[in-house]
């Protein structure tokens, strides 16, 4: 690998870059920050030449802040790119010199020293990836990006450096003699275009992985091409998408081949299988309709298991795998129950933040960072601001685009299967994480059941247990307590009888004033661990800015009451910082958003008006030192030496809690 570290880019610059390329007439779409991989699998569907839409793609929907995505230029629909490769000594420049190509066209220099020559094409052309087994028709080291292909736009930065415009001029036409040497893109057959079932389910990925680990390998000179194509068709029929097929084959099968396929060659073999396979993707999958929870398929059995076990058998002792050590297992159904107004939803979001960052939950370590899906049958409109408050106050200001938490509003339990499948696929694509927890808030509303009906309660909890097993994740079902904590979970005892774990949130609620005191969280049932109290907690309001009338906007977060919690002065500093980040944030030279330190100082000094100037100064300095040491904030400098406070980057998520 060549080049130094990725140059820090300003998010606003990348948004401007995307808009500028859209104004040139190119369809743009986001690539991952600092990389060349599309942020979205269906990038060719979201690509746009509308500058306003491009600006939206590079803007965080919650905060309105620009995002640091690199920019991809979609080819096809009148555009084509000649990609001249010189990496590893490839002779792209020599091959280019031998081609009768007009050089007076928009040209981009790549970080590796190659070129992207952009042309207008009177017809769409197929993508070409030059390799030893499939040499490019335009010469060695010459790739072609046509329909559904793309190049990285100038202005983007990767580890090797920055893509720069070398020649900024109007696009030339791709000559007829070159077009004659390039084939037309092959369209997918209409009868095989639609999948036979939902793709990339956990059980499908499990089946395919086991199949690839045992499948015969391809050997050069012994029908390796045909063997690879047939293997890709089999994987296709088993119910995975083309992108997942490439990744799984590359990881579990290709290294054993003699010799292994080049990455581009392998991708092309898989593409052909998906283009010309006789069956629809998933045609050989045992999966059934995922539209309803009751019909979710059980995972396929890959390895047979003994009917009985004895203590002397290996692995006979069942040891749970934890998500939150000694409290929450990796898989199962947790009932998060409590009285109205006690903060059940806020507790579920606190847990979601812990799992999504790999931090701790009430002091207990999280064993695996996972994606989280919140299914809101009640109060879906409040989730975004509450997550924003959590992000700003409890997660060290982690970038919203790096937070693997998704949510959806549900009104029918039959929607759950499809939503979970889509969320699991997107979570893997965006963050490389499995979907590890699903919150159902509330379970009675989600299933539209009478809480007192034991049969319906049992059916709902069994459906959630099946979903947990099928998706291989933890389900957190939010439920109501009766009027007092002594009344337990409202309705039938079937709710508690069916749960693997129960987290109970209780407190003293005044029915006259609505005031809530003495909030407590406890583990009241567990199939795996000892039960008992966890901790006291409170809800703290976080300022999110002001509305169109100038009135403050706020949301609450959970604050555990323990020795490790922030003291009141630290909490004041962080609350001031969170509010000012929305109301008065500015860009620093390194592209981050921050708040002038002087504004935070003025706000804190105003709250400490009863202290002496010397006391306020020492207290402010001491608080900053501790928050910086705890990796909650960082100091930065702006133009003319102005000091800024910026969120600490979430490099080590466990340090955020």
UniProtKB/TrEMBL annotation:
InterPro entries assigned to the protein according to its UniProt record, in alphabetical order: DNA_primase/pol_bifunc_N (IPR015330), P-loop_NTPase (IPR027417)
Lineage: Bacteria, Pseudomonadati, Pseudomonadota, Alphaproteobacteria, Sphingomonadales
Pfam families reported for this sequence: AAA_25, Prim-Pol
Record organism: Sphingomonas kyungheensis
Residue ranges annotated for the DNA primase/polymerase bifunctional N-terminal domain, each copy included: 18-178
Signal sequence bounds: none
Protein name per UniProt: AAA family ATPase
